[in-house]
Amino acid sequence: MPVPSRWESLRRQFSADGYVALPGLTSPAVLAKLGEEARQLEADAVRRDFRMECMADSPRHMTTLGGHRIADASPLITGLYEDRELMRLLSSLLGETVVPVHDPVERHVLNVLHRPGDTHGAHTDDYPLALVLFLEAPPHIADGGLLEYHPGREDLNALDAPGARRAHHRPGDGYLLRSDRTAHRVTPLGRPGLRRAVFNFAYTTPDRQGATTSSASLLYD
Prior knowledge:
This protein has helices at about 5-15, 30-40, 65-75, 75-80, 85-95, 215-220, and strands spanning about 20, 45-50, 60-65, 100, 110-115, 120-125, 130-135, 145-150, 165, 175-180, 185, 195-205. It is of the alpha+beta class.
């Protein structure tokens, strides 16, 4: 975790960009435990191949597992999601009180890209914050699986406009995204043998507990 002395600079960056990288967020020991947990959970995950109508028909080619099924199988992930120190850090970065999402489907999910062309197409999220923890990631920028986002833009076509950015992450890294106000997507995997596996933790503020779209139910139910 970032040390307290860095919180203010990270908060300013997050406020300006809607994104902040958290390299080395998980230690090698924790990463190994999360990876083992993810492999067990992936056995129950569901393949998704469709276009999300409520997100401008953007594609979904990925394997997913929703939070309700993770909660039934993994006290480890549920406990990490609800960690008070983690939420205290997120509150510092957002500048508001951060709380867990009540929706059991969307609160913590597993997303796996594992075939050439797999992608999590353009979207915004129902809740303000997405904390993404990388378990596996393509080793090179040219391999795809990059986060693509446009600071300050909610409209999905902004991802094809000047100012859009791309970010590469490694296993053990994380990032925080102002995901309800920042158009974002994951670029397609470029070749066989690549994998991108992440836990996505959704958080909100006390006055924001209602989903605004049907996207989560379509992807994770």
